[in-house]
Amino acid sequence: MKIYIDGKFCEKEDAKVSVFDHGVLYGDGIFEGIRAYNGRIFRLEDHLQRLDESARAILLKLPLPIKDIEKAIIETVRLNNLKDAYIRLVVTRGIGDLGLDMRKCKGGATLFIIADKIELYPEEFYEKGLTLVTSTIRQKGLDQVTPGVKSLNYLANILARAEATAAGAQEAILLNATGHVSECSGDNIFYIKDGRIFTPPTSAGILVGVTRNVVMELSHEKLGIKVIERNFPRYDLYGADEVFLTGTGAEVIAGVKIDGRVIGKGACGPITKQLIKHFREYANSTGTPVYETAKAK
Ligand code: PXG
């Protein structure tokens, strides 16, 4: 496996960052999780735009222009000979001293890119759906570093996921400070009631997922259903006809049991099934080509 790190490619064993890197010392950095389908990188521009916005939000100067980061991503996938891939891009503050002062990271940000085979939920989960629990951990408020910044501070999400695992579930729902549903530890959340589709708005404290946006577009274009963004309590999920999650890793997947309550008929429902189908068709027919020079968009 070839890893990109600060302008060079090296073997996995040699891909190392310093113990003085503020990404390691403080979680001071940002990342993106991106997928490639069939030799094309899915919604690469959207991920790069979010990366750029996250960098601005944390006063981080990206080590390369976005166009060059794009080239480095494509090259990483190409060198690893991958058609379907999970790409992790990380930008840390770089090497500093033991203090908090970002000005001490004089060498500038460190950028690394890993492209690996994807690990999916087994196909049966897409038919049977996932079990979810509400986490005891609250979503960060908008007055903190907003959840919209994809920062290297994922401890709350990791601990929420651990609660799900301990409860025999696959994902955890995070409520925000007002008790409204925000998102899951690594996915956005939607519910369907009487043919209408709802999802929490940005103001609920969410990462604005690339998959979330694609599903909102597909729902409108393919099903004629305009997704409604609104705040709701978890009780609306308990009474929903269908619940589904979206994320780069999970794609579109149903949630069929929440805090012990069975949702709808307890399996992936008809509208979620349609969205899974449309998402897969779309994902396999779009994206930035890795192995051709011609731009297919
Ligand atoms: N919310 C959070 C908190 C996320 O981390 C999403 C929503 C979905 O966003 P995208 O752009 O992917 O549709 C994410 C991203 C994993 C894993 O291993 C998942 C994410 C990040 C890191 C790891 O499942 N999801």
Short characterization:
The protein has helices at residues 22-26, 44-57, 66-79, 123-128, 155-166, 210-223, 234-238, 270-283, and strands at residues 2-5, 8-11, 29-37, 40-41, 85-92, 110-116, 130-134, 171-175, 181-184, 188-193, 196-199, 228-229, 242-247, 251-258, 261-262, 288-289. The chain is of the alpha+beta class and 297 residues long.
Write a structural description.
The protein has 297 residues and is α+β, with helices and mostly antiparallel strands. It has 2 domains: 2-116, Aminotransferase class 4, branched-chain amino acid transferase, N-terminal domain (D-amino Acid Aminotransferase, Chain A, domain 1, 2-Layer Sandwich); 125-283, D-amino Acid Aminotransferase, Chain A, domain 2, CATH 3.20.10.10. The protein is built from 8 helices and 16 strands. The protein has helices at residues 22-26, 44-57, 66-79, 123-128, 155-166, 210-223, 234-238, 270-283, and strands at residues 2-5, 8-11, 29-37, 40-41, 85-92, 110-116, 130-134, 171-175, 181-184, 188-193, 196-199, 228-229, 242-247, 251-258, 261-262, 288-289. The strands form 2 sheets. Strands 7, 8, 9, 10, 11, 12, 13, 14 and 15 form a 9-stranded mixed β-sheet that branches. A hairpin with a 5-residue loop joins β8 (171-175) and β9. The longest helix is centred in the N-terminal third of the chain and has 14 residues, at 44-57. The chain starts with a strand and ends in an 8-residue tail after the last strand. The mean pLDDT is 96. Residues 33, 157, 183, 186-188, 207, 209-212, 246-249 line the site of 3-[O-phosphonopyridoxyl]--amino-benzoic acid. 3-[O-phosphonopyridoxyl]--amino-benzoic acid is lined by residues 33, 157, 183, 186-188, 207, 209-212, 246-249.
